[in-house]
Amino acid sequence: MTDFWILLTAILVSTSCAILGCFLVLRKMALIGDAISHAVLPGIAIAFLISGSRDSVFMLLGAAAFGLLAVLLIQKLQNSGLQADASIGIVFTALFAIGVIIISMNAQNIDLDLDCVLFGEIAYVQWDTLSMNGIDIGPRAVWILGVTLILILVLMSLFYKQFKICAFDPALAAACGIPVMLFHYMLMGMVSLTSVASFESVGAILVVGMLIIPAATAYLLTDRLSYMLLYSVLIGVVCSVLGYYTAFWLDASIAGCMVTVAGCLFILAFIFSPSHGLLSRRISRKQLAA
């Protein structure tokens, strides 16, 4: 049963991240996931100081608030004329540093392990369970991630065309009357929620790997968004399963092995992709030269 809960948690994380990652890659906003996953640290620390509890609800609210704050600050800096990468770098490093300072200044009052927050430990998810009328209904992380995934699927199903147009051509979307900024903040809100919901199981740093690498791998394999979403989810699931058994074999971090497997799959796609792979491009150049 332990294997089931760990794999289910990993699959929920990777599926949620893979779907959103496709739109981040297409919009050239890959680092926004990294920014949010770091920016939630002060929210976690402040929530613990206020509540005095490690209850996931308080942690979720505090982290979500700072995740959305990071998105708003990045957008404000970009609107002021600062480049996107510089805006992201400034915001996430500043908020992350604030979180580290809060924790270090209140180390005697904050029972938080920075290694746990940053790297996570998915092997422990089955011990933090929810109860309803005295009945154990499963790990808390599974419920939080399950609700998050359902919300993502509902919003993507309802507004798939809008998200698609905004990802490929924001100017065309605006000309068609689509509120581009509304869908931008909807996407950023979902990324923030997913990052917050995932940090307990895979950590604040490693969640960015699952947000970007499966989507980037799928991007190399197809030119259609629908297939890209499908491939990205499948790659995420494969990374979850292979990563778990690799970690078991090596006696290593499960989340770390998941992202490592994802990196290996990306390298394979980068080399052997039929249309965008390194080998196919070299063959095409040789054929043109001949």
Descriptive overview:
78% of the residues lie in helices and 3% in strands. By secondary structure, it is mainly α. The chain is built from 13 helices and two strands; from the N terminus they run H-H-H-H-H-E-E-H-H-H-H-H-H-H-H. It has a two-stranded antiparallel sheet. Strand 1 (129-132) and strand 2 (135-139) form a beta hairpin. It has a single domain (2-205), classed as ABC transporter involved in vitamin B12 uptake, BtuC.
Features:
3% strand, ABC transporter involved in vitamin B12 uptake, BtuC, mainly alpha, 290 residues
Summary, kept brief:
The protein has 290 residues and is mainly alpha-helical. The protein has helices spanning 2-26, 31-51, 56-79, 84-105, 114-119, 140-158, 160-168, 170-175, 180-202, 207-221, 225-250, 254-272, 278-289; strands at residues 129-132, 135-139.
